[in-house]
Amino acid sequence: MSANDPDAFVKAETDWLAVPLKENKPFLGICLGAQMLVRHLGGKVEADPEGRVEIGWYPMRPTEHGRMLMPHWPKMVYHFHREGFDLPHGCQLLAAGDVYRNQAIRYGDNAWGLQFHAELTRAMMQRWVVHGAHRFIMPNAQQGRDHLEGRMIFDAPLKAWLSEFLDLVFLKVDHFS
Question: Which residue ranges does the record assign to the Glutamine amidotransferase domain (predicted)?
Answer without folding.
Answer: 22-121
